[in-house]
Amino acid sequence: MSATLIEVEHLTMRFGGLVAIDDVSFSARPREITAIIGPNGAGKTTVFNCITGFYKPTVGRLTLHGDRDYLLERMLGHEIGQRARVARTFQNIRLFPGMTALENLMVAQHNKLMRASGMSVFGLFGLKGFRKAEADAVEIARRWLERINLVADADRPAGELPYGAQRRLEIARAMCTEPRLLCLDEPAAGLNPRESAELNTLLVSIREQDGVGVLLIEHDMSVVMKISDRVVVLDYGRKIAEGAPAEVRENPAVIQAYLGTDDGDPDA
Amino acid sequence: MDARLPRMLKDAAVTALVSLALGIFIVGFRTYDIGKGLTFDYQLVDLGIAIVTIFFGRLGLLLASTGLKWPAFALGVALGAIGASPLKLPSGFLHWFVVFAGIIIILRTIWPWVDETTSRANRSPTGVRAGHVAAKWFGAALLVAAVVLPLTPFADQQMMDLAVLILTYVMLGWGLNIVVGLAGLLDLGYVAFYAVGAYSYALLSTQYGLGFWTVLPLAGMMAATFGLVLGFPVLRLRGDYLAIVTMGFGEIIRLVILNWVDLTNGPAGIGSIPGPTLFGAVFAETAPAGHRTFAEMMGIPFNSNQRLIFLYYVILFLALVTNFFTQRVRRLPVGRAWEALREDETACRALGINPTNTKLTAFAVGAMFAGFAGSFFAAKQRFISPESFTFIESAIILAIVVLGGMGSQIGVVLAAVLLIGMPEWFRDLGAYRMVVFGLAMVLIMVFRPRGLVSHREPSLRLHPVHRRGSA
C-alpha cells in the first residue's frame, strides 16, 4: 500500500458563483495528524463536507487508500462511513441527545451489529451469535468510555452531559465506527485550557494506539502546533502553505493571511 | 384576610362577567321546534349556576397559584361535593361541570407538590430504582387485569365492546409508536395501512374463502408492502413536509377504495365478512356447512357473549405481540438506529447508517401492525366501508401516541383508555362529550407537555439499576 491515506486532488467546490474551494490538493498519511487551518471562511469545513460526502465536489478527486482505493466523490454519504470508513465529528456537536452515552457508542457500531443480528432476524429471537456480538460491542464502548473518562455517566442522556464531555463523547462515537480516517471539525472549540490539554492527549493516543489517520480543523494554535505532524493552510479557498508546523509558522504567506496586510482584510 | 384577596375577587368577577356575556345567548336561551316554527325558552337558572361555578373555579385557581393551598383545596373539595351530591341541579351536565371545576382546582393545588416530588425522585438513584419497580408492577398489574377482565362480573356486552375498541386503538397506537415515537417520522396517513389490512381480509375471505388466521400474515405483508411502496418516494422528506405527504397518501388510498367499485364495492362497502375461528370452530348460533360452532365443540350452551370474549382475547393477543416485538426491536441495532435517526439524521449518515433503508424498515413494520389490526377490525365488524378509514382515525391514533408520550408503550395504553374510553363513558353528556375530550387533551398538554409518560428507558445500561452501579 502507498504511504498516503487520503489524496485530495484538484478539489474545487462552487456554490453558484461563489468558489468556496479553488483547486486544492493535499494528502494525509496514516498514523499522522494533519491539521487544516486558515482564517474564518477559508473553506476548511467545506473540504470536510466534500470528504465525508455531505457535498459533491464540483471538480476533483478524493481517493482513500484502504483495503482498496475508494473514490469518495462517487460514493453516497452513508457509504463513506460504512465502506471507506471515514468518520467525522461536527463543528456544532451532533450527538443523539436523548440517548445515553453508551447508546451513542452502540449506534456507532450499527453496521457491524446489523450483520451480526442477521438483519434483525437472529437478534429478534436472541440467538447466541448476536448476544455475543452485542456483548463485544458493549465492551468496546466501555473501553472508550474509560478512555474519555465517562464510565460513571454511561447511562445518562448525552444531551445532559457537560460540554467538554460531549465533545469527547463525539470523538469516541466516531472512533467506535473503527475508522481509517477520522475527521475532526474544531474539537477544541469552547474547551477550557485543561480540557484542551486532555483533548491533545486523547488525539495523540488515537494516533499512537489506534493507528488512525486524523484530519483536524482547528483554530486553537496550541493544539495544532503541539500535536499535528503536518499542517495545510487554506485562505479564500486556496492552499497557501503545507508542511511541518514549525515551517508553516514561519511562512510569510501564512502570517499575511492571519495578520492581514496594510491593504488586505484585517478582520482575520 | 389576605391583602391579595380583593384583586382575586375582582379577577374572578371579570371572568364570570365574560362567561356571562359569552354564555347568555348560547346557554341562556334554548330554541324549541313547535311544529310551525321556532320558539325559545329561558334557561337562566342553568346559566346562573354555571356562572357561579366559573366564579368560584377561577377564584380557586387564583388561590392555588398564589400559594394559598388550603383555601383552594377546600374550595375544590366543596365544588366537587356539590357536583356529586344528590342536590337536584337543573341538568346532568351541570353536575359534571361543577365536579370538573372542583377536580381541576384540586389538581392545580396538588400539582406543584406532585411535580416537585417526582422530579426529586427522578434525580435520586433510590427514586429511579423505585420508579423502575413501580413501572414494572404497574405494567404487570395492567396485563393481569386485561387477561381476567372478561371473567369478571363487569364484563357485560357494552363493557366488552368498549374493551375491544380500546385494545384495537392500543394496538394501532403501539404500531404507530414505532414510526412516530421511535423513528420520529410524523405519519398522518397511518389509517391507510389499517384500511389495506381490512380490505385484504375482507376480499380474501369473501372472494376466496380464506380463514382469518391464514389471511392475517398476508394482510400484514400486504400493508407492509404498501408501506414500502409509499415510503420510498416520501421518506426523503422531513418533518412537516413528510406529515403533509403521508396525509395525502392516506386520503389517496381511501379515495381509491371509494372509487374502485369493481374491486371494493365502493361506498357500499363489503358485508358478511366471516369472523375469526378457533381451531376451525365458528362463533355463531348455527355453523355453516363443514364447520361446527364453538358451543358445540366445548359442549356448552350458546351465548352471544362468547364471540365478543373471543374477539377480546384475539385483539389482546395481537396487541401484546405488537408490544413484545417493539420492546424487543428497541434493543436491537435497528431499533437503536431508528431512535438515532429521530435524534439526528445527519449524524447517522456520518456514522455510516443508511437513512433511507432504516426509515423504510420502520415505516414497513409500523404498516404491518396496522395491517394486522385492520384485518381484525374487518373480522370484528363483519362489514367495512371507506367511511371507517377517514383522516380523523389517523389523527386519533396520532393523538394517542403523542399524548401518551412519544415512544412510551405504557403511555399509549393510558392515552388510548382516556381518549377512546372517555367519549364512551360520557355518552350521557351528549354533544358536550367532545368538549370533555378536548378539555382532557388541553389538560394533558398543559400539565404533561411531553405526554403522559415522558420517561425514556435506555435500551441498555452499563450499570444495571437493580444492582448498585459502580459509580
Polypeptide structure, described:
- The complex is a heterodimer of chains A (268) and B (471).
- Chain A has helices at 44-51, 77-84, 101-108, 110-116, 121-124, 128-147, 163-175, 193-208, 221-227, 245-250, 252-259, and strands spanning 6-15, 18-28, 33-37, 59-65, 69-71, 86-88, 181-185, 213-217, 230-235, 238-243.
- Chain A is built from eleven helices and ten strands.
- In chain A, the strands form two sheets. Chain A has a six-stranded mixed beta sheet, with helices on both faces. Chain A has a four-stranded antiparallel beta sheet with strand order 2-1-4-5, with helices on one face.
- Chain B is mainly α and 471 residues long.
- A two-stranded antiparallel ribbon of chain B has the order 1-2.
- Mean pLDDT of chain B is 84; it is low at 467-471.
- Chain A binds chain B through residues 52-54, 77-83, 85, 87-88, 90, 94-100, 102-103, 106-111, 113-114, 117, 119-120, 123-124, 138, 141-142, 145, 151-155, 157, 173-174, 177, and chain B through 325, 328-329, 332-334, 336-337, 339-340, 342-344, 346-355, 361, 456, 458-463, 469-471.
Could you tell me the mean pLDDT of chain B?
84
The outline of chain B comes out as globular
CATH topology term of the largest domain in chain A: Rossmann fold
Strand line-up in the sheet with most strands of chain A: 6-7-8-3-9-10
Question: What string gives the helices and strands of chain A in order?
Answer: EEEHEEHEHHHHHEHEHEEHH
